[in-house]
Amino acid sequence: MSHLWRRHRHWLAPTLFILPGALLFGVVIILASIETIWVSFFDWDGVGPMQWVGLANYEQLFADPQFYVSLKNNVIWLAMFMLAPPLGLALALLLNQAIAGMKFLKSLFFVPLVLASVTVGVVFTWVYDPTFGLLSLIYGWFGATAPALLSDEHLVSFAVVIAALWPQVAFCLVLFLAGLNNLNEDLIGAGRVDGARGFAMLLHVVLPQLREVSFIALAVTIIGALRSFDMVAVMTSGGPFGSSTVLAYQMYEQSIFSYRFGYGAAIATVLFAVMAVFIAWYLRTLLRPEQETA
Amino acid sequence: MASVEIHNVEKHYGGFHALKDISLTIDEGEFIVMVGPSGCGKSTLLKTIAGLETVTSGRLRIKGRDVTRLEPGDRGIAMVFQSYALYPHMTVEENMGFGLRMAKRPRAEIDTAVARAAQILRLEEQLRKYPKQLSGGQRQRVAIGRAITRSPDVFLFDEPLSNLDAALRTQMRVELSTLHDRLGSTMIYVTHDQVEAMTMASRIVVLNGGRIEQVGAPLELYANPINLFVAGFLGAPRMNFVAGRVTSTNGGSASVTCGGDLKVDFDDLAETPAVGAAVTIGIRPEKLRIGDPDAGTSFPARVRLTEYLGRETIVYADAGDLATSGSDSGTGVFTIQIGDIQPFAPDAPVSVGFDANAAYLFAPDGRTLSAAKPVTQI
Questions:
Q1: Structure pTM?
Q2: Contact flag B71-A200 (C-beta cutoff 8 Å)
Q3: What pLDDT does A289 receive?
Q4: Could you tell me the pLDDT band of residue B1, with boundaries at 50, 70 and 90?
Q5: Beta carbons of A195 and B81 less than 8 Å apart
Q6: E strand spans, B37-127
Q7: Per-domain residue ranges for chain B?
């Protein structure tokens, strides 16, 4: 027995360690994804019998004006979320200064990371409230009336994204702070000896060392923008008139509230296809540096 | 004109006193090597000259200009780091031209300077490569090339060869000496390797505990260490130290008795110790001889171990009650270096001898008491 174990240990041990994770990933992610794609070809209310409809769900989806509203909102999310990495970096550079009290200030910036996103959503709903919210208070100082952001179909998506940006910026801030702590001191020294300072130092010596962190921040932000759901659910439920709906929320609404699991699965499949593009880019970039050194 | 002047520099890190009243004047074109044990402050001193560390008090001048408060880039220095510190995202060419680019020099001037440095360091073929595509020795050359292109008044080297293997280290040592001859620039070089110090320096600065112990030409320091620390630090194998007591003095002479009833007479002392003082006798391994009837002083010992290095033989001999202190082996045996190959049976009884005027006498506080020895002329 022990002889057998010793002979096969070099592959048995890693296999045993990976097995639980791989099993979980296989069932929850891979199998579920395949089943979702399968379900998208059926008309199904979630409990009754499944009726094969072929591509009918997709045909209906691409003719649905609500789908294009969701898609447009996802693009708004994606575009505005791109602000998170540069804002996080700017804050990290600011908070990285060795000034007394900076530690306390840093911890204040971490607050949104501790809050559940539902909490952030609720808090921002109050901030935006046109009668008693913080925003109406600020407008009041200037003698103006605050717009009802969450009931304005043109502004509502932007208002929700700004709320979602708060924890996202904090997340990028943490990533960049960690990156700044790992800067190579000798390289900074070499830069100083070479006469680089201020913006030139940042551009030529500091930022290149943060390349990997920036990449992770960017990738996580993109995924975060595409899978946005909770903020929309808490703050607007997709309203008014579905004007703040995103793909993930539309999928949820169609499946759970309208009992159209086949249609919801079709939306999920489209969202999956969009994400797959970014995931492919992520994986390609992640694997490329290893090829370079080889 | 002096190239670098260091006036009463002090450096505190919180409660740690890293540099204690350092003053040193370095002439144009000198190759200064700073040596000392870990934590002696040699790297800190180099970084204060570079401007990477500020001084707590004191002044620094480079070419007569007060640079104490200037940024590193404004001091007219270039530095080669132990880790090379090459910018990983830049090619060799960009790495070497970066300093001039930051100084906003015209493109043509940068290209010329880089090409010249590449030619000096035989890097022409590597210019378009990235640091990670280069070997350790090549990276080191690029780091030196980056320093050369800036045509600095002073080159600073922080243990530049310690990451290289032994063969490459010897080769780079020769290359650096050649480079110094060719450029004629002032160079300040920090190392813990005393072979580098002895072979490259025009003057060696020995540091210990944040203080300068002694400054001088390599052979001068080797022949006439100012105290026990310098005597023990320079020379490999290390000098043999034996504790003794002054039994009698007569003008400039003193008799010292050590364990095992060994008696050594010193003449022409620079300073006469008090009778009864606990002194230390030092004798370099190459000054000890085995079985020489003409040796002025001798004592019996037994061979413990023999190392045959080819052109020389190192013998470790145990003299019983006459034990050495602070030896490399840490066992109290004598280290004897013989210039040829002599076979010794283990445990063989031998007579170890030396001439008293080749020995050193150190006061209880470590100062050298014996007369200055002539430095072998080259």
A1: 0.81
A2: no
A3: 60
A4: low
A5: no
A6: 57-62, 65-66, 77-80
A7: 2-232, 237-362
